[in-house]
Amino acid sequence: MNQHGVVHFALEPLAVELREVIVPEIGDTDVLLRVGAVSVCGSDVHQAYNTHSWPVNVPVILGHEFAGTVAKAGRAVTRFREGDRVVSETAAEVCGECMLCRTGLYNLCPARKGFGYGIDGAMASYVKVPARCLHRIPDTLPFELACLAEPHSVAYNAMLVNSTIRPGDLVVVLGPGPIGLLCARMAALAGANPLIVVGLTADAARLETASRLGATRTVNAQEESVEAVVRGFNPLGADLVCDASGASRPLDLALALARPDGQVTKVGWSPDLIPVNINPLVQKNVRLQGSFSHNFPVWERVIHLLDRRLTHPELIVGLTSPLTGWRAAFDGMHEGRVIKSVLIP
Ligand SMILES: [Zn+2]
Ligand SMILES: [Zn+2]
């Protein structure tokens, strides 16, 4: 049986197209998922423009942020059956044997392959998913919002697991893309105040959304000195700076903004290799933390937050489209007109 899928087919810019592909066969421990909604990630857009910093197994169907209905369950699957409404984690393949897999940090397994770059993803009618990746979702959570569980989990892991935020902490988020905005929301839920979100002139609409998500101050770094604003709140600097800019360069600024004994968490990345002055890290006793992906307990909490609409997920979805409109959905995000696009295959 055939279906249509958004396929990344070569390692060059704009090598993405809607193609006829085969509906996958499932193994005993997999389910075949009828995709209800799949949101477009900044990483999908990076792959489309060939500006990604991870290895991609072309040709591959894009899409790792998805929710849907179990259409068929493999023979050994006991916890899920046809008709169940679910979301899926992204670690499509892990070794299951290493220390990280055995301690629940399978998202960091060196053998990990994710949907949409290592394994066929969900920008198609059907996707094959190992049952261990699935989480049930309540009937009150529509697929168009449930698919956002993945970027929410990235932000939750960065701000609430890999960083420490106490109510009243001065928190700065660099980069108001979807991940930066969700990081800001997670910080707001944790009681960060002041909460400063930094962007550029092109980010005007995103900074507006940041305020609606709980930022107490937004800064256009092309018009104002971020350092002056932060030091206006506390001359020592910020308790936590989250770099969600998707570039390497702002790490310098993040290290400069952190207070002595403060933290910097880096969640955005890019292929740029840049010289950085890391001396403030030592001189100020700063904790520099990378944050990658997410695991089971993060997802369970995020599904609850989404179901209760505590993160205001509807504020970040700017465009909903059938699969045939994938290009406009990608371009809207690339050009900054849309924070997040959602495809309904
Ligand atoms: Zn994503
Ligand atoms: Zn492993």
Explain what this protein looks like in three dimensions.
Helices cover 26% and strands 26% of the residues. The chain contains eleven helices and 16 strands. The chain has helices spanning 42-48, 99-102, 143-146, 149-161, 178-189, 204-212, 226-233, 251-257, 279-283, 296-307, 326-334, and strands at 2-8, 16-22, 30-39, 60-61, 65-73, 85-88, 126-130, 134-136, 171-174, 195-199, 217-220, 238-243, 258-266, 287-290, 317-322, 340-344. Strands 3, 5, 6, 7, 8, 15 and 16 form a seven-stranded mixed sheet that branches. It has a six-stranded parallel sheet with strand order 11-10-9-12-13-14, sandwiched between helices. The longest helix has 13 residues, at 149-161. It is globular, with a radius of gyration of 20 Å. Bound molecules: zinc ion (ZN) (2 copies). One zinc ion is lined by residues 41, 43, 64-65, 150-151. Residues 41, 43, 64-65, 150-151 line the site of one zinc ion (ZN).
Number of extended strands? 16
**Spans with pLDDT under 50 lasting ≥5 residues?**
none
Secondary-structure element string? EEEHEEEHEEHHEHEHEHEHEHEHEHE
DSSP summary: helix tally: 11
Radius of gyration: 20 Å
Q: How much helicity do the residues have?
A: 25-40%
Strand content: 25-35%
What form results from the Cα inertia axes? globular
**Chemical compounds bound to the protein:** zinc ion
Mean pLDDT: 96
Task: Please give the largest β-sheet.
Answer: 7 strands, mixed
The end-to-end span amounts to 16 Å
Helix vs. strand class: alpha/beta
